[in-house]
């Protein structure tokens, strides 16, 4: 089979996102790969923009409008309160848009790429990476060649050659979702699904484990030939409550709430949103990376500037949350807009269920991973979200290709 340029480009993107966090420890320039990928959407949109696509799909249109309003709310707040310098504001706007820009980049790069034609080759690459990660994790349990991050539940949390277990969990989950996009059958893929799930579990990151358990639940429903229905999600509600309750209780009701970065950020975010109702304090002012780099006055104003990880001398934990950032920086209005943005994104993915239930699983798996991680991570603004934007972009590409094919048949 002749290798197309699109296939070669896809393999490069696959390996870059699967290995970026490991490579950038040794080659610093690779840490900018996710930013570069997101920014590619600008020249690609200039060259390939088609207004009819956005106009035709109401979910894409509503998502774009809500994103514009979301940014507008934050910028207005920055102009009113002036808590942050404008270059910090610009950086934070980019971080908030980067995930969605990654989806657009993927769409423009691969909307004409027939992934089904190359799915056997792609699956081979994915399986090699999963097998590599699994073999290294298992051998490390025996030989202890690689350092471990910490100990939980009486076990070592594995990270092999990654910098943190979360990075290994995220890279593995990304590969599982790509395997779903190129799915061929239960017997051929089950062993690699199990290995991938085992890798995530052995990182001992509770949120990643919860996400992979939801993924496995959906996987076995779909591979039995059933179509996903809303009622199938009902058993997940008690599970999600169980996962989220400990985090929620710790952040708002425990004695340690104001002593730990996540708890302090979560609690104070509501006060900021109340005091600056309804627009919030503006971009770069609270619980975001620029708010620590260009130290925001809000931390000292609200009495949490002495909390470990939130100090002027070391603010390394300022971006350890997601929803508190949205609530404080963009207010209750911005929070409502972001929830609506996520709903529009889910509805976009739901369209893919009409094409292939495995595509639906891949797209929804990415959303579930981000929503679960948003309980105690920067989620949608995290660099680890960019591989998931690729997965969602590929599901949208598949829907576009199906619609284009149907229109060609109608017009012929």
From TrEMBL:
This is O-antigen ligase domain-containing protein. The chain crosses the membrane at residues 7-30, 36-51, 63-81, 93-110, 130-148, 168-186, 193-220, 232-252, 272-289, 321-346, 358-376, 382-400. It comes from the Bacteria. The lineage of its organism: Bacteria, Bacillati, Bacillota, Clostridia, Lachnospirales. Keywords: Membrane, Transmembrane, Transmembrane helix.
